[in-house]
Amino acid sequence: MREMIKEFEEAPVEKKEDNRLEMHSLSRKEKRKFKKEQIKETTESMTPSERRKYLLYYYKERIIITTIAVVVLTILGIQIYKGTRPVAISYAVINCKNQLQFNADAFEEYAEAIGKKDGYQINGETNVELKKNEYTKSYEENANSQKYINFETLATADQYDIIFTDMEGAIYCGMMDIFYPLDKFLEPEYYDKIKDRIVILQNMKDEPTQYAIDISDTEFAKSLNLGYDDIYIGFPGDQQDNHDRVKDFLNYLFP
After folding, report:
1. CA distance 68 to 59
2. What is the pLDDT of residues 79-90, one digit of tens each?
């Protein structure tokens, strides 16, 4: 590649100059034909190395533009493909203590276990830090207010199936009604799976509500390496896809 770039930069010694006056009177098609014949005539007596160098320099703009176009289209195609694949799970992690040690592979293993790895995508967000005490400060005092708005916008737009959090984050989500009440969200079959793990939190009206599930003792929760021992989950998405993916996860977590 470096040699090719060098050849792009080094202009070859021309063995014949263009007859510009003759070119001026030709049509576009005739000019292309004339150029082609001229290049053929120019390179006839060249060695293979000289011919390669000449052609690389002569067509360098086309090669560079074509290469860039191929790379851009390839990246765009990959992104479009990823965006159109069905979702295996979409999650957010609140107050992760050390994102470098967060074990995202646990979700890959989960997707494989439920038969939704190949051809599926996993959407995850771990850079979410939410604290009730910080939020309750006035907007002027809280320089990070926008992050709360951003998260709530995504959560209320059914972006996440499941939120993993510590108690501080769970209290915040309860206070803002981000989680759906478990007794209304879950069907009886799935509610029975978690009824002994329910955590009561205060909602926006300061009413006790069944918002979170304690999964601290599960191997899956421990494997995440969130940096805290007490791990809770809640469900912010209310579309049918969100419900279906929550069912998949609860069946996996509590078979």
Report:
1. 14
2. 544 456 788 899
